[in-house]
Every structure is written in structure tokens, then in C-alpha cells.
Amino acid sequence: MKTILITGAAKRIGESIVRSLAVDGHNILIHYNNSENEAKKLQNYLKNKKIASSIYKSNLENEKDIETLLEKINSDYGNKLDTIINCASTFGLDSAKNVNSKSFDKHMSTNLLAPIILSKYLANNCVRTRDNNIINIIDQRVLRLNPSYFSYSISKYGLWGATKMMAQEYSPYVRVNGIAPGPIIANTDQSEADFDKEASNTPLGHKPDIYDISNAIKFILSTKSVTGQIIAIDSGQHLSWETPDFVPAKKIDK
């Protein structure tokens, strides 16, 4: 049994990870920021299933808030925490032409700096005889960059780089890996029709199952020779190749 902190755990992908990992008997630490009702509801669900859990509120944009979160976890669990899944994320629309420091800093603080600080805590406080894990929820776009969602994309690209460097730094006691989701849930700037079109245009022609993220996490947790890797759960979206500049080769009659 592992003791697992999942950030951004009250809704969407985070909630699905909680529900999936909890059935395996792990002790689940649910982090939330603004979704208190959802977090409490999720904890009650786990309680009814007789699964141990705790909930923690923290604004991951604020480093002092993160320090307070870690102090509470340390008080409650000491060095029992052995896995962190960095799922919390800010996702805002901007571009290289209109980016500003407020938007950029918000994305960097939540999506990049917070996972690094939380990971540092685990690496410095974990039991050296255990298999400890950090799993960062990244994005398939880091494997196929485009200029939309500029600050978000840079923060996730940085997190992919940090994943590899932390895997080097924290070996052999902590394994660090990433999951790169594709079109699983429509974002707040996207209509259902546009989302369905995006998902159907992937190489596999359908949206990925949200629980495939949990399946990938379970693979990483159970496969102790894997570190510094990223698994794309995106129906092959990062492999899309029929872009507007693609011109099919044609046989020339001679």
C-alpha cells in the first residue's frame, strides 16, 4: 500500500485518478484549492468504501501556502508519503503576441514551480528503502508544439524537462515520470462540437478514456525499472501528421 498525494484531485482527471487508485487500497491525500465541496464529497465516497484518505486545501500559486501544506502532511504522515501525482494545473488562453507577466507567472507558479517544490519535499523526506514515485501530469502538446496557449505550453514543456532532470537527480530512491494526456475532457474555451472534432481527428479516431491515465499510473507504480519517461494518453494525437503543409507524394508518369 502506498501513501499518495494527488494535487488538483477534486475534479476532472484528478478525481478519476483518486477513484481508480483508491480501489487498490492506497492511502489517498486529496489536494484542492477552490473545490471544497467536491473534495469533501470525494472523501465521503472513499470513507463509505472504507478507504483511508485526507483532504488538504492549498493555493499552489503561493509558495508559503505550499510550505503550509507540506507541514500539515508531515505532521499527519511523517515520512510515510511515498508518491506524489502532480495533476493540478492552470490552463489559460494567451499567445506570444499578447502574453503578460500576470498570466505567465500564474501558469509557471502552478504548473511548474509547485510540482518542483512538492517533488523536492518527497525526495528529501522519503524513506530510502522504499520505491518512491513522482508522476507529473503534463500534456501531449509538449511532444508536438503549437503556438496556442502560450504560457500554459511553456510551463508544461518546462515540467517535461524538469521530469527528466529530477529523474536523474533523485535516483535511485525516487522514480520520476510523466503522463501526457490528449483530448480527454473539453477545456473551458472549447465547445463540445469542437472537442468532438478534435478527438475524432486523432490517428485512432476517438477520445482517450480518462481511466487510461490511471492505468498508465498503475503501470509506472508497478514497473520499478521505469524513470524519466513520458507516456502519451492521447489516441496518437502527438503523431498527427496530415497538417496543411503535407503534400502526398505522387507517381510521375514518364
Automatic annotation (TrEMBL):
SUPFAM superfamilies: NAD(P)-binding Rossmann-fold domains. It comes from PS1 clade bacterium. Pfam families: adh_short_C2. Gene3D superfamilies: NAD(P)-binding Rossmann-like Domain. Belongs to the short-chain dehydrogenases/reductases (SDR) family. The keyword Oxidoreductase applies. GO terms for molecular function: oxidoreductase activity. Keywords: Oxidoreductase. This is SDR family NAD(P)-dependent oxidoreductase.
